[in-house]
Amino acid sequence: MVKNMILLVIYGDTRKTDTEAVGQLVDELIPRLCIGLPGAALSLEGDVARELFQQIQGVHRAINLLNQSNHNDSWRSTLRQLLTLPRVNELIRGGATRLLFDRGELPAGEARNYLYQALSSGNSTTDATAWLEGFLHGNGLLLIHHPMLWTIIDEWVDQLDAGKFQDTLPLLRRIFAQFAPAERRQMLALARRGRQAVQPAGPEDFDEERAKRVLTTVWRLLEKDRPSG
Questions:
Q1: Phi-psi region of 46 (alpha: psi -120 to 50; beta: other; left: phi over 0)
Q2: How large is the average pLDDT for residues 189-193?
Q3: Contact at 8 Å (CB) between 100 and 140?
Q4: N or C: which terminus of the chain has fewer CB atoms within 10 Å of its end residue's CB?
Q5: How many other CB atoms sit within 10 Å of the CB of residue 210?
């Protein structure tokens, strides 16, 4: 509802609705939304969490279009709370991290720290994958232009044992399937370059067997056939 009202204020409608009156109502509703959202995001699961995440994305886009500093500040503060509050669904937590990062409100180094936390061994693979799904929603340019984030995900996948990897693979494939074909091709090229994309390594540091395992994983994630030979 708030998203639609914001869009009405910005664009108007064919019924000549009084946008000034709607704008006053929006000015009252956005602060209430910002106060209530963190509590509403607690202890959610499955489709309920996914639906709330979609609503958060819609409101985020609308507030960006409205571009009023007071509402921008309140919304940024609310997203920040979602990053740190306990019991926030990991899909929503990862998504809030990405929304802040895309707006330039979260430096790359801080985003890396949140990613590293989400993928730490203390978290279940289910929670880690949910966080990744939220963080990587929309497009894959984040990983293409920030190889350090790619490296953290690479290291996390590499440390999964065979059983956890098989359980996690369908979830990871769902995440990577949302990316455009051109983005998936760039990711495959990034995987072929390995960690040299982040820091130079001498020939003595190259682990051919590990590189083969990483490429096999990427081909499976991107639903590509492994080339012969």
A1: left
A2: 77
A3: no
A4: C
A5: 12
Contacts of 225 (CB under 8 A, 6+ apart): 219
| Residues with Cβ within 8 Å of residue 30, at least 6 apart in sequence | 2, 63, 71, 74, 75
Give Rg (Cα) of the chain. Answer: 20
CA distance 42 to 17: 36
Q: Is the pLDDT of residue 82 over 90?
A: yes
Distances (CA, A) of 71 to 55, 60, 64, 78: 17, 11, 9, 11
Amino acid making up residue 120:
S
Rounded to an integer, what distance in angstroms lies between the CA atom of residue 74 and that of residue 115? 24
Residue type, 20: E
Under DSSP, is residue 200 helix (H, G, I), strand (E, B) or coil? Answer: coil
pLDDT in tens, 154-190: 888 888 888 888 888 888 888 888 888 898 888 888 7
Amino acid found at 112: R
Amino acid in position 196: Q
Show the tokens assigned to 102: 């895309």
Closest to 178 measured CA to CA, from 124, 147, 141: 141
Angle at 199 (CA atoms; ends 196, 201), nearest 5 degrees? 60
Could you give the CA distance from residue 139 to residue 152 in angstroms, rounded to a whole number? Answer: 18
